[in-house]
Design a protein that fits this description.
Number of domains: 1
Oligomer: single chain
Mean pLDDT: 87
Bound molecules: iron/sulfur cluster
Radius of gyration: 18 Å
Strand order of the largest sheet: 1-6
Shape: elongated
Helix content: 25-40%
Low-confidence stretches: none
Length: 150
């Protein structure tokens, strides 16, 4: 039940549609591909705080207060859903990270599947893709079901 309330409070309306569509269709998310080091994910970042994806400067100020390591980010605008977008001051002109060993967990985990449920999408040209797919086990169950009928 707690998980359900967290989903309602942190997912965006589009993310909720994606979540319930996947549940209904018995699908799961699959991340494929690899990084081509374009640096675009460091230019358009959504940040998630304790109460969901950040929407206001006030929420960002609170986050920096609690976690000073987030000071490296600067607000660059808002996305189509009203969430704040940030760029990172650690990004070099060549598209690399100036302190790669000390990048944040969110950078290490990118692209995290939660991106799909905040209604976000990968930057154009990203070497990864996130897709809603039928789980392998479901293929297997369907196949063994057909075999059993024969
Ligand atoms: S946008 Fe994708 S390909 Fe580009 S740096 Fe980020 S993870 Fe790598
Ligand atoms: S810390 Fe490095 S990897 Fe993380 S957003 Fe900034 S430039 Fe990108």
């Amino acid at each position: 039940m707690i998980r359900f309330f967290r989903i309602l409070s942190t997912y965006s309306p589009l993310g909720l549609i994606r979540y319930f569509r996947m549940r209904l269709m018995g699908r799961e998310l699959l991340v494929t591909g690899s990084c081509n080091c374009c640096g675009d994910c460091c230019r358009k970042i959504n940040l998630e705080g304790a109460r969901g994806w950040l929407r206001s400067d006030r929420e960002f100020a609170d986050m920096v207060n609690d976690f000073p390591e987030y000071e490296r980010f600067v607000v660059s605008g808002k996305d189509s859903q009203g969430f704040l977008q940030f760029s990172c001051t650690w990004l070099t002109e060549k598209g690399g990270c100036q302190n790669h060993d000390n990048r944040l967990p969110l950078c290490r985990k990118f692209p995290d599947k939660s991106l799909h449920f905040c209604g976000g999408m990968l930057p154009d040209g990203c070497g990864y893709s996130i897709s809603e797919v039928k789980p392998f086990k479901k293929y297997l169950d369907d196949f063994t079901g057909i075999e059993g009928e024969q």
